Fold this protein.
Amino acid sequence: MSERLRFDHVGKRFPGVVALDDISFTVAAGEVRALIGENGAGKSTLLKILSGQYRPDAGTLAVDGRSCAFHRPRDAQDAGIAIIHQELQLVPDLSVAENLMLGTLPARGGWVDRADLHARAASVLARLGEEIAPDTRLGSLSIGQRQMVEIGRALLRDARIIAFDEPTSSLSARETDRLMAIIGELRAGGAAILYVSHRMEEVYALADSATVLRDGRHVTDVSPIGPSDADRLIAAMAGREIADIYHYRPRAKGREALTIDAITGPGVRAPLSLQVAEGEILGLFGLVGAGRSELFRLVYGAARPSAGRVLRDGVALPPGDPRAAIAAGLGLCPEDRKDAGLIPLASVRENIAMGWRNLRGGTPWLRRRAERDGAAAVIADMRVKTASAETPIAQLSGGNQQKAVIGRWLMAEARVLLLDEPTRGIDVGARSEIYDRLYRFAEAGGSVLFASSDMAEVLGVADRIAVMREGTLAAVIPREQANAETLLRLALPESTTSSVREPMPV
């Protein structure tokens, strides 16, 4: 196979941080190369250099044997490069068709050629297997559908080099299967694929080879790659052996801390009741569209229930009132970290202290000092990798941003954590650290209700598992009785004939 892309001694520095140091590897035409490493390893920075968002401080890139210097994203696009970002680069108020061809809208006589625009959009949507009208407002779509639109943009450009950054983190099983087929087609057509994912079963199924980064450095290459390389790859990523990322440990349960009593509302169509005890971690499993995120919004007060109530320590919370939920000790980490969990331009300190500020009195000077000290303690406790507490949180990797969001509620001394996909897009080492912190939180009497579409995670971490299906509660299962087959049978709609792949152990 001919060489299509080369990174040659590439380096990148930011104030106080060496993001990339002497990175060299190649990707051939018709090759899928996995780019793997823990959060903060430098993967996103490398993709931003490839996309033209950043310029390297050292080294060069070559496309089809020719050295390239990208000064802006358009330069990379003109060179046949497309990046499918984990944090979507789309405009919610534009149509699906307009987003698909953003920057390359077809024109005739100085006006947008709407007929051509819709025809091209309909063609790529059909290829993606999405039954979406081209004139649909993008903001009305689910996160998974938006992700498929982002992928469609690359297909429309006929890119020769395509980088996928955690592309399946928001996709359903059906959409994931379709994406795998599309990547196979691109490989057969001679495209060079860079595939970034923490889902190792996808890496083994798709990739021909792998490059491992750690702390901004190139650790090793593996070719060919398969499940037998699991221990080697994880040790290379983490710099240590991680035999079991879950490390489940049982603990004593206390009194009932959170009660969801016959609640219904947007996304929850039948009365739903759940209880979470002090010291308990209750997992909430379900497929895309099951209603897990909608239930969290009802419990937290971000949406108003049509019936039922939420009780904290036996006291009913005012419906539709997040401030009252926070005051009662509830903290929510939303699924959509970028849009609903962070203020990107604010510092790490400000984002962590956000839930704490309104709960504290004292003089302004004492509050400022306490805020600095509290945020510093959370950064150390959650092992957030940042040059400084004053660094804009947008500069952190996704995993470190998520650690900060969880740490926000630890600083605010929340006693009930509502975690929606808490480890989405996070590497195995960081996941293991987050699980350990949740166990410690529960051992101190805290309560955790977490939703995940990762079956292995739910089976590995939860004391009990509640399964949702199409806006209803299908069952609540003790840990000892739960297995993959049971969860899938309960989560699938009764009329479905689809198959869902079981996750491979990491």
